[in-house]
Structure formats: structure tokens, C-alpha cells
Write a structure and sequence with these properties.
Strand content: under 5%
Shape: globular
Number of strands: 4
Order of helices and strands: HHEEHHHHHHHHHEEHHHHHHHHHHHH
Number of helices: 23
Distance between the termini: 69 Å
Largest sheet: 2 strands, antiparallel
Helix content: 55-70%
Length: 482
């Protein structure tokens, strides 16, 4: 390395000496060419030095194309690369280039013609147009939504703003990062969200930038998401083992073996590809493994094991409340721990004000405490946030049934089933249709369940055999079909 540096220094000295030692007949154009070559050599050496860590850049600074250091707080909130344009205002958040792109966003001519017809319409029309379509406003709406903890809306606006700048060939690093942060916090697509986070960060940061300390936050988020994604994939790989195909719920020895095999992933090594293309050895994520154990144990009626997994997960990784909070709250209700369940629901809301699952928890909890009116009210609040959350309809339908409003309950559960066709919905649908006296619906649901080859829960079988009333089914024990 030392010899290479000395050789490069010698070559640069020779080039400099050659450029200065020119006769009067040496043309200006040739001199300019020489100087440009020298500048190119300097830039190449500077880049190489940065890559090799010879130029130190702190995590709170970035160096621009002119090698000026820019503090993190002065970086444009769109591209994250250039200095904010303070000539606009002291608190302006964007650089000159990003501002120009937003300023020259094309406006539909016909919209302007209509707007100009009446002054009042023009004012509100133009304001509305800018509000709905400019990249600047989308970024502003995203930040406002973030400040109000409306994470789903924030992601939507960040995507809109990022798309605007992408069309202008600008890489909106900060917008990408904020979007990825919110997805990681809320997991709207479940396990797939982790892979989505990694892909977003890969779009935002180049291989060269990934070597700079300023982007450590991006890299850490991306790698953590990738590790968690691979941890869940390892769980699915275990389940896909042919040895465990058609696993009998009564085969407790094999169930215990699989449960332990999943748990043994903790501490084991796996490899991921870093942002610079290198293979990095890491270990499986414990939080992801615990949630995988929960899913497996719960599926095979090992409820105590499932509960312990979630309790441990809540202790070691409370920041992942969106991953496990709803499931843990439901089990707490089934154990009669209504206060604990409601506290979990509150934490879910604090994590994301647009999450509708806390209202399903409240609806279930209030129903079990006997407050059917409040249960229905909580379900309606959740439906106002997300009309496709089927469990909200299920909880509301059960409370309506317990109030004796059988026909209304049937209508609600039917709507909920149109959004999600999982077995619990259909078994609840079966009970409500039976109590509503709709024999045609009853036969239709039974046929669907038979074709799906879903095992009938013990409590439902007792209900069908006349050994358990619907009131006891939905008010005693767990207050549910399982």
C-alpha cells in the first residue's frame, strides 16, 4: 500500500512539473487539457481515499461534490445530500435543486383555464391542485402524519413524494428512510414488510455511499430487516421439512421436537449480503424466532407455550409491539386479564394511531366483561379506521347476537366474512346463522367447511350437539369458539 501511494505521488509530481514547464508556443487548449487531467487524477485519488477510509467523515456530516462538510441538520430533507436553501427561509427544509424540481412541476392547462374563469374558484382550485399533487406538499403531509402518529398515511405520502422526485431523477434518500422506518414499525404486510424495508434502503443508498458513516442508520435498518426476514424464512423451511408433513396434533413428541428445532435457531449463524456486495455472517433474530415458536405452538393447541413465547418477546423486544401485541392481548383476555389486554391495546395505538386491531381487543374485552354496548361501539370505531378488518365485524356480530339481535348479527358477520374467509369467521357465522334460523345459510357454511377439510373445534361440536348454548359459548371460558 505504501509503495503504491509513493508511486502515485511520484506520478502526480511529474504531471504537475510537466504542466508547468511549457514553452510560449504551448497552446492554451493543450494546457487546459493537462489541467483537466490533473483535476481528474485528484478526484480519483480523493474517491479512493474515501473508500479506503483515509478521509474521515463523522456520522453527523457529509461531504459534497466540492468537498465541503455539511452537518446532518443542514441536509435537504428530500435528497439528504445537499445543503438546505436558507435563502428561501431560515427553516426551509429543501435544497435549491429539489426546490426547483418542485417549482417546475407541470400543471394541467385545462385545469388552469377552468380555474381562471372565476377568481374564487381559481384560488381554491390552484391551492387544491398544489395540495394534492406537488412533491413538496406530499412530503409535508407525510411529516404531519408522522407527527400525529398516523403511520399508514405517512407511508402513503412518503411514497407519493418519493415518486415525484424519482421522476425527476433525484434519489430522495430521506423520504426513502422515513418510509422504511414506518413500515418497519407497523409491518403492514407482515413478514413481507421486512423484505420491503431492505429493498427500499437498497434503492436509496449506492454501494459507495454504503461505505460512509453518515449512512450507518440506513445500513443498520436494512440489515436488521433482512436478518428478521431470513429468520422467518428459516422457520418456514423447518415446517416444510417432509418429515413433518401432515403432523398429527396428537403427536406431542414430534410437536415438541419441531418446537425445539425452531428455538434452536437462536444464536445460530446465517449469511446475508451487505450493501457493498460482501457476504456477512450474522445470527438469527431472537424476536423473530420467538414469534415463530408462538405461531407453531398456537397452531397445535400448545397455548401455554404460545403464551410464554409472547410474554418473553414482550420483555426482550417491546419495540416490536406491532408484531405480537394483538396476539398477546387476545390470549390475555382468554386468561381473564382484561386490564393487561387493554394496556397492550393502548400501546398498539401509541405505536400507530391508524392501527384498527386495538379496537378488536377492546371490543372482545368489553364483551367478556358484559358491556355489550361498549363492545359494539369499540368495534365500530375500528371499522371506521379499517373497514376490511374482519375480526371487528366478528366481535360486533357476537355482541349483537348476545343482545338478541340475531338478524342484525347475521348481516354483520356476513359482511365480515366477505373480507376474510378464515375458519374462525365461518364457525362464528355458522352459530349466528343457526340462531337466526337461516337454514339455507347454515347448510351453505357447513359445505364450505367440509370442502376446506377444517377440523371442527370441540366447543363448536358441543354447540352443534346441543350440549352448549351460544350464550355460554360466547361468555364463559375464553368466550370464543376455541
Amino acid at each position: 500500500m505504501k509503495d503504491e501511494k509513493e508511486m502515485n505521488a511520484s506520478q502526480n509530481d511529474e504531471a504537475l512539473e510537466s504542466s508547468l514547464d511549457k514553452s510560449e508556443n504551448y497552446e492554451q487548449e493543450q494546457l487546459n487539457d493537462e489541467l483537466e487531467k490533473l483535476a481528474e487524477t485528484f478526484r480519483a485519488e480523493l474517491k479512493k481515499a474515501k473508500e479506503q477510509g483515509e478521509v474521515k467523515i463523522s456520522e453527523n456530516e457529509i461531504v459534497d461534490e466540492n468537498d465541503n462538510v455539511i452537518p446532518q441538520e443542514e441536509l435537504c430533507e428530500c435528497c439528504g445530500e445537499r445543503r438546505k436553501d436558507k435563502s428561501v427561509s431560515e427553516n426551509y427544509a429543501y435544497c435549491t435543486e429539489c426546490r426547483e424540481l418542485m417549482k417546475h412541476y407541470p400543471i394541467n392547462v385545462s385545469s388552469l383555464v377552468v380555474a381562471l374563469a372565476v377568481i374564487a374558484v381559481a384560488v381554491f382550485g390552484v391551492m387544491g391542485f398544489v395540495s394534492d399533487f406537488s412533491g413538496y406538499n406530499s412530503a409535508k403531509l407525510a411529516k404531519n402524519a408522522d407527527s400525529e402518529n398516523k403511520k399508514f398515511s405517512a407511508v402513503e405520502y412518503y411514497v407519493e413524494a418519493a415518486s415525484f422526485f424519482e421522476e425527476k431523477d433525484v434519489i430522495p434518500k430521506k423520504l426513502y428512510k422515513e418510509s422504511a422506518d414506518n413500515i418497519f414499525t407497523t409491518l403492514p404486510q407482515g413478514v413481507r414488510s421486512f423484505n420491503e424495508v431492505a429493498e427500499i434502503i437498497d434503492l436509496a443508498i449506492s454501494d459507495f455511499e454504503a461505505r460512509l458513516p453518515i449512512y450507518n442508520g440506513y445500513k443498520n435498518l436494512r440489515d436488521q430487516a433482512l436478518i428478521m426476514y431470513n429468520s422467518f424464512n428459516a422457520f418456514y423451511a423447518i415446517l416444510n421439512n417432509s418429515e413433518y408433513a401432515n403432523l398429527d396434533p396428537e403427536d406431542k413428541a414430534t410437536i415438541e421436537k419441531v418446537y425445539k428445532e425452531i428455538g434452536d435457531l437462536v444464536g445460530k449463524e446465517l449469511t446475508i449480503e451487505s450493501m457493498t456486495g460482501e457476504t456477512v455472517t450474522v445470527v438469527y433474530d431472537e424476536a423473530s424466532v420467538l414469534f415463530s415458536q408462538f405461531m407453531f405452538a398456537y397452531s397445535y393447541n400448545e397455548y401455554e407455550k404460545a403464551y410464554n413465547c409472547l410474554k418473553t418477546l414482550d420483555e426482550i423486544a417491546p419495540g416490536f409491539i406491532s408484531m405480537y401485541g394483538y396476539e398477546l392481548a387476545i390470549i390475555e383476555i382468554q386468561y381473564g386479564n382484561y386490564k393487561t389486554a387493554n394496556e397492550l391495546a393502548k400501546r398498539l395505538t401509541l405505536n400507530n394511531a391508524e392501527d384498527s386491531s386495538p379496537y378488536a381487543i377492546y371490543a372482545y374485552s368489553e364483551r367478556m366483561k358484559g358491556d355489550l354496548e361498549d363492545s359494539i361501539e369499540q368495534a365500530d370505531k375500528g371499522i371506521a379506521l379499517d373497514k376490511e378488518n374482519s375480526d371487528l365485524y366478528r366481535q360486533k356480530a357476537i355482541s349483537l347476537l348476545l343482545q338478541g339481535k340475531n338478524k342484525e348479527a347475521l348481516k354483520v358477520i356476513e359482511e365480515g366474512t366477505s373480507y376474510d374467509e378464515y375458519a374462525v369467521m365461518y364457525y362464528t357465522y355458522l352459530v349466528i346463522a343457526t340462531e337466526a334460523g337461516d337454514t339455507e345459510k347454515v347448510e351453505e357454511i357447513k359445505k364450505i367447511l367440509e370442502e376446506a377439510k377444517v377440523e371442527t373445534p370441540e366447543k363448536i361440536q358441543k354447540y352443534l350437539d346441543g350440549e352448549l348454548s351460544y350464550k355460554k359459548l360466547f361468555t364463559e371460558g375464553t368466550g370464543d369458539i376455541q
